[in-house]
Amino acid sequence: MTRRWRTFLVVSAILFAAACTRKPGAATALKPTGFGAALVESSGGKQTGTVGALLPQPVVVQVNDEQGAAVAGALVEFSGPAGTTFDPPSGLTDASGQATTNVAFGSTAGRYQLTARTSTKAQKPIELKIEEIAMGYQEQLGFQLQNKYCASCHDPESTPERVSNYDNLEVKPHPFTDGGTLNGMSDDDVTAIISHGGPALNKSALMPAYGYTLNKAEIEALISYIRLVSDPPHHVTGTAYARK
Amino acid sequence: MIPQPMRKWLRRHVLASPVHRFGWASLLLLIALAVAPTKDFFNEWRHYQRQYRKFISTRSDRLTLQHHFTGGVQQIWLPELTVVDRCTTCHVAVSEKSLQGDASVPEPFRAHPPVAHNVQDWGCVICHRGQGPATELAEAHNATRAWEEPILPARYLEASCGQCHRAPLTGTPQLNLGRNLLGRYGCVHCHTIKLSDGSTVKPSDDPPSLSHIADKTTREWIYAWLKNPYAYSVTTTMPDFKLSDADARDISAFLIANSAPVTGDSETVKNAPPDATAGASLYGESFCASCHAVQNAAGNVVGGDVGPELTRIGNKAKPEWLRAWLRNPRVYNPETAMPHYRFTEPQVSLLTAYLGNKSDSDLLANVHLNAATPEQVAHGKLLVTTYGCAACHEISGIKKPDNFAPELTRVGSKPLTEIVFLPGMKRSTPDYIATKIRQPRAFGAGLKMPQYTLAPTQIDALTTALLAFTDRAHDLPMALTVPAKAPSNYQPAGNAGKLVADLACFSCHAINGRGGDMAPDLSWEGTAVQRPWLLGFLKNPGTLRPALIRRMPKFNLSDSEITQLTDYMMTVYQTPAFDRDSLLSTGYTPAQVQRGKQLFYSKYACQSCHIIDTKADKGYVGPTLTQVGSRLNAAWVYHWLKNPQALQPGTIEPNRSMSDEDALALTAFLMTQKGSSKQGAKK
């Protein structure tokens, strides 16, 4: 009786320990067959997504050797701030040296620094930091609104669906990522420009007034989005980075 | 029972006299009475509230926070929604503005980020689900004991918005996408979803009728298509039924044998030599790409998604069918979204040859089918019935099955006990739904649900949309729902109405609540534009917005058709808000025009989005205004300037809250912009 009890305890302790081990890849125990010297981002960095939800595009990283050639079969592990999930959390690089994962954010809005890890043959770890941006409800609303009202002038990038008007303007608008300028403006100033147009702050009249088109909550949402995507980051109370 | 020394001790000290006995009994009673308050003192929520008081005492805003704090069990009660919500007992600071966005605040004390609703009015469980009345963490958040509904993962949170809001919301892109996919992938052909108002969710796809399929394509193509729809079209919404070779052979045999020819549609082809350049330019001029996509060499799909993808149309469509279709698609399918272009015979030949060349020689290379036997045809019919093909496609001789697949009206509240999970799967409703969409056949042999090719974000979106169909959504009082715009089946009358149907105007334009959003709403077009301009535009549609890739095609309408359409639009499509002729288009003083010009270029800086002077102005966001004086009516321009959203809800032209004088001066200036035919031709 006691021996069986002890066995049960030992087994359940092991199971419990296994269940608690959150080390990525521990459960699947992938055996790497290749080792690289460098880890580079192929695609999926600097995306904007919604808290809790999947990023629109998967994150793809590539493992290279000293000569810059792709390495197949290298183990890549992904990790991120609390709440971030990776599907899969680790994997071996494919024939083209790439490892792909689908990332879902935790429930806090802000910047997420993801880490991809692999190691050299000598077990020296190689790390790659990838930054993504998670929008909460308000930022999401702002994102949708800026897509409709602002992006045709403030986003210099053209797509087939939306040709950018940026180059056509005599006074160039600030892209919303231009933290260098926009971080220096208070929320009240930005609200004034959106509501009353550029001349409200002695700036260009090419920026029209939206105060009779957008309501207060919508303008607040727009500003929350602008603050979230600004580069360098806009620091408010607390921190713009999601906690580890 | 009781050992001897103990009994001795008891007799000497406890039971010695009635006074002793009474004393000890009282003590025991007191201890028993103290158990309940002690338990209460040590319970979870008091612990959190003590922690919170300690936490705020270190902050600079402690006075405000202390002032706002009330101890004890907090409760938000929403009798209409049958919600009792005690979450704020532990989440004491959800509404604290000064804690908002501060990631250094520990849970459960974080403030709720700003959302469209006030937490104090709506509580938490309406959106986050979980057990509102519980005051212990495990019971509130997880599925424990008799309580089944756990917290909804943040990943699918927008589902909760969809319980009350039936119309798309700006802030819920994932829910909007999911609802769109439910219609677009035709899920609701097989799965009924009833809404609380008694209506059902309607599909938005248009699966073709298979009753005349032998006119259109070959048995070999049907076989290859059934085996792998994605090999033919990467954008198709037709799923893969994972059919065996024999089953695909028999279904194709049945469909061909069952097909009846469409009368008046059997002309043989006069072979036209393919002229790739001329064909491509006619394809481009007719703006086929506004609705049809083609996969380019780089693998990117370019073009619209109203009609089917045409990358390999030459493998599918028989040339004689393509000719007849291009001549008038309404002969084969009276309900099609494709307009009836009035192509000339040489144009029809040109396009037929051009499209016929769009093919992939590998697609049908390995398909070799012998003549079908009657047994194969009979077996094919059986399979078509078994797999419910007629739920989506019209097939003559086979009735559309009712409730072919399980109803999903309350799928978001499906009890865990009714779900069969796969081994190793997380036991939650959202995970079940997502897995079921991702790999439907994994749940058992002989399941009929086919395999769809969906991106992970699409699966999440569909799951979100399905999780919105809960008991609460279904039993919600009507007063609390925010209904979607009622669908309109508006149809213009008379000859103009026939033309509107024939040209499929509703595929792109909306009128009185019906139609697409690719092109401008025409409900008040008669008030907006001048008659001569509309006549000219229908004859030869120029472009108003040079930056747009989707444009109005030229339908080669006859003069009498153009007059009919123009007369109808000018007479019927008028706003009741003001009279079209209430302002003159000419007769403004030069001073007014001059002032308007100044306002245009300086105060309102309209040139940032519009072009008046093609040499100096570059604004490409709004329409070009070089000819606005001969296109629009003065009254429309004036009222548009005063309040654009009143005339076209959702337009991005900002409301500038203009004074009457400014609006009039700008109207005067704009009405002098008559353009010239030369300028128009240049654009």
What does this structure look like?
The complex is a heterodimer of chains A (244) and B (683). Chain A is 26% helix and 22% strand. The radius of gyration of chain A is 24 Å and the shape is elongated. With 244 residues, chain A is of the alpha+beta class. In chain A, helix 2 packs across helix 6. Chain B is mainly α and 683 residues long. The C terminus of chain B is likely disordered. The relative contact order of chain B is 0.07. Chain B is built from 33 helices and six strands. Chain B folds into six domains: 37 residues, no CATH class; 108 residues, no CATH class; 112 residues, Cytochrome Bc1 Complex, Chain D, domain 2, CATH 1.10.760; 179 residues, Cytochrome Bc1 Complex, Chain D, domain 2 (Orthogonal Bundle); 78 residues, Cytochrome Bc1 Complex, Chain D, domain 2, CATH 1.10.760.10; 93 residues, Cytochrome c-like domain (Cytochrome Bc1 Complex, Chain D, domain 2), CATH 1.10.760.10. In chain B, helix 30 packs across helix 32. Chain B starts with a helix and ends with a helix. In chain B, the strands form three sheets. In chain B, strands 1-2 form a two-stranded antiparallel sheet. At the A-B interface, helix 2 and helix 6 of A face helix 22 of B.
- What does the main sheet of chain A amount to? 5 strands, mixed
- Largest chain-chain contact? A-B, 52 and 41 residues
Overall geometric form of chain A: elongated
Percentage of residues in helical conformation of chain B: 40-55%
CATH superfamily of the largest domain in chain A: Immunoglobulins
Q: Assign the CATH architecture of the largest domain in chain B.
A: Orthogonal Bundle
What strand line-up does the widest sheet of chain A have? 2-9-8-4-6
Distance between the termini of chain B: 108 Å
Q: For the record, what CATH class of the largest domain in chain B applies? A: Mainly Alpha
Order of helices and strands of chain A: HEEEEEEEEEHHHHH
* Uncertain residue ranges of chain A: 20-27, 237-244
Q: Output the structural class of chain B.
A: mainly alpha
